[in-house]
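Subject: Interface between my chains keeps coming out wrong

I've been trying for a while to get a sensible model of this assembly. When I model each chain on its own everything looks fine, but I need the whole thing in one frame so I can look at the contacts. Pasting all components below, labels as-is. Any help appreciated, I'm running out of ideas.
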Amino acid sequence: MTKGITVEHLMKSFGSTLVLDDVSLSVKPGEFVTIVGASGCGKSTLLRILAGLETADAGLIACDGRSIEGPGVERAMVFQDYSLFPWLTVMGNVLFSRRLAANAYDNLALERGAEEARAQKLLSIVGLSKVKDAYPSQLSGGMRQRVAIARALMSKPALLLMDEPFGALDAQTREVMQDLVLEVVREEGTTIVFVTHDVEEAIYLGSRVVLMAPYPGRIDFIYEVPFPRERDIAMRLSAPFLDLKRRIMSRVRDTVAMSFDGADQNSQGLSA
Amino acid sequence: MKTPRAQDADSSAPTASPLRKRAKLWSIRGQLAGQTYFFIACIGIALPFLAWIALNSSGTVPRVFMPTPVAVIERFITWVSDEGFGTDFWISISRVSLGFLASLALALPLGLLSGTFKPAEALLEPAMDFVRYMPAVAFVPLMLLWCGVGEGSKIAVIFVGTFFQMLLMFADDVRRVPMQQIEAAQTMGATRREIVYRVIFPSAAPAMLTTCRITLGWAWTYLVVAEMVAANSGIGYAILKAQRFLATDKIFAGLIVIGLIGLVQDQILRALHTVLFPYLKGR
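Reply #2:
Try treating it as a single job with all components included. I did that and got this:
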């Protein structure tokens, strides 16, 4: 059995638009892979297929050797916004998955008390122990995303999918949240696939950065990030970091320029 | 909260204070202190009454058509003491409640289904759209034929007047549940059933209560229609009978009573909203 995520020759179209064209990618257990790319490159669609929220037209996708047919407990997802349940408190949101039938007989076999303890632990990792009885409407955008992360981790997923989770946050909060995610990885050892439009965020968090190109969506290049697992703020200003950032950003621009030639053909195809 | 612009105005134009105050009261989407709001609301309610009194004392309108407020209050007291107001009141309340609850009991599950599953929507909504454009009032003769002159026909008219709209509005409330909430539950392993009961229903519940508040108002309209056509009790019937005897004062009393019931009912449902959904505070 192959551990981790395997994606082979994935194809996906919406109507006559080809969104993913022959995408192959493998993610090892415990790895942190970030995906960047211009809009229309299919990065969110790829993530949603991994989550089981969309189905592929062709190709193979598997998590720990099992083919992905639909959403599953072992693949949790953090959305950009509006995914918290406003009628539940912070604690209620984190415990939500434990009240579902699918999780009642899982391998963790957590008792009620242990459940609460795990929720408490996750809330303390994300720094929300003090507001566990608050409702989402009483929290800031950054705090809401912390709750979403704790909630996604509650059932110890093998894979955590994050779809531009900090896209709606201000720059300062975003930096704090990035360090928080690294902290979560240290504590929980979760495999993460993280979609973002922010190249700096992608390099700072990922051990590999997957660059996708638009029209049709495909993998353009995979960059190895030449930094150890432990990251700190100083790295953001180091020469190798800035060099990699410059290379990726200019490549993103190139892929967009290329797509203009391709887009012509594409629109002709649509009108025909 | 003060905007930077408001502060600028403070420092640059200290003499313009009365003007600025008025601008604040009438600022677009502005706020109003609770007391001020209450005061203005009282003016709004008092004005029509003052106009009524003025019209009476001017003597241009005969008393038969326009009784004085005092006459209306006196007539209301006799209605309570001698003419069975209590019976009229309770029978009307129970008709509205039964008709409304019957609507609710059917529209709630069907609205949930219709807003959640496309085949249910296709089966129900085009048909409902067709029926809801038929005026409920036009169903009264049919309901009389089918249900007789008893309680059944009044409840049926209220049901026809509210059910179709309620179903479509519930379905819309359900469709406004953010997809992210549903998908988050899916990625946590929730079944379709669990998503309906644990996500969609609680998420749509506040909007659904508002829908109930709106349709309950319509239920009263159809009640009065039903009571005027075929009944021998109830507030609507009392108003109709009063017209036959040229008892304008009782018509006025009946209208005001219905208005007051609506007002009280609305306040109760608003209070229920804040009690049931405390998490909406501060939004």
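Reply #3:
Confirming on my end. Confidence is low (pLDDT under 50) at residues 264-272 of chain A.
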